[in-house]
Amino acid sequence: MHRRQLMALSVAAVAAGLLAQPGHLAAQSKDLVLYCSPQIEWCQLMVEEFEKATGIKVAMTRKSSGETFAQIKAEDRNPKGDVWWGGTGDPHLQAAEEGLTEEYVSGAAPDLHPWARNQAAAAGNRTVGIYAGALGIGYNSEQLDRLGLEPPECWADLVKEDYRGEVQMANPNSSGTAYTTLATIVQIFGEEEGFEFMKGLHRNINQYTKSGSAPIKAAARGETTIGIVFQHDMVTQKVSGFPIEIVSPCEGTGFEIGSMSIIKDGPNP
To answer: In 10 A of CB 62, how many CB atoms?
Structure first.
């Protein structure tokens, strides 16, 4: 089954579950305010299918995980959003720890994968896992050939002088993808060697983006050669016809558990 079909089915199921609860969202007259952190195509599909299934209008804002967490934290005394959907799980867990999200257990919880249930258990049911994604290296094969470079196979390859100015990743201050990258490198190489690796990588970085998926979009357009992103973001570009190749680094890699949270004291509970 294609991802779009899976996403549509999951949204319809969630919407059906909500409508089955008396006096729930269908009784609300205001728009549902959605903060969405994955790539925009996912966010738009969620809105379309939810509106179709429920008749409830959705006001959606797309921002990276780090930016969304910062916004929810800034709005703590006067919350503006209702639901935070997607993005890496760490900021969702942090929001749960700081009491910014509501405790909620779905009736569908027993049907979820163990990693999704574990995410909920770790947060006291203030967030829940909804998808998993592995980190990787994506490169533009045409650009690589034009430059006469060998394809990267490992994280260690990315610090080679050959790739000077050819690598792009997001900023860990705003992006959950980049935070996962940093955590992955430290866990694979150890703290001291990991930060030495990051220093070497920094010399080859041409730009730190706000959004985690931006580097592979730039690679697809030929604006950079290599992007460090989640592999599902690479697949999106590849199936769209761009010359993107996907690498699972030889040393191993980290992964995210994308999560969903209900914002505490949001306007449309």
So the answer is: 18
Q: Which fold has domain 135-255?
A: D-Maltodextrin-Binding Protein; domain 2 (3.40.190)
Task: Please state, in angstroms and rounded to a whole number, the distance separating the CA atoms of residues 88 and 220.
Answer: 23
Helix (H) or strand (E) holding 176: helix 176-189
- So what's the pLDDT on residue 96? 97
The CATH fold assigned to 3-132+257-262 is: D-Maltodextrin-Binding Protein; domain 2 (3.40.190)
Q: Which residues of the chain have pLDDT under 50?
A: 1-29
- The residues facing 97 across adjacent strands are none
Angle at 106 between CA 29 and CA 12, to 5 degrees: 60
Dmax over Cα atoms in the chain, in whole Å? Answer: 63
The DSSP letter of residue 203 is T
User: Which structure tokens are listed for 93?
Assistant: 């867990």
What confidence score (pLDDT) does residue 3 get?
40
**Threshold 0.85, pTM exceeds:** no
DSSP for 95-137 reads: HHHTT-B-----TTGGGS-HHHHHHHHHTTTSSEEEEEEEEEE
pLDDT at 30: 73
Nearest to 212 by CA among 184, 238, 234: 234
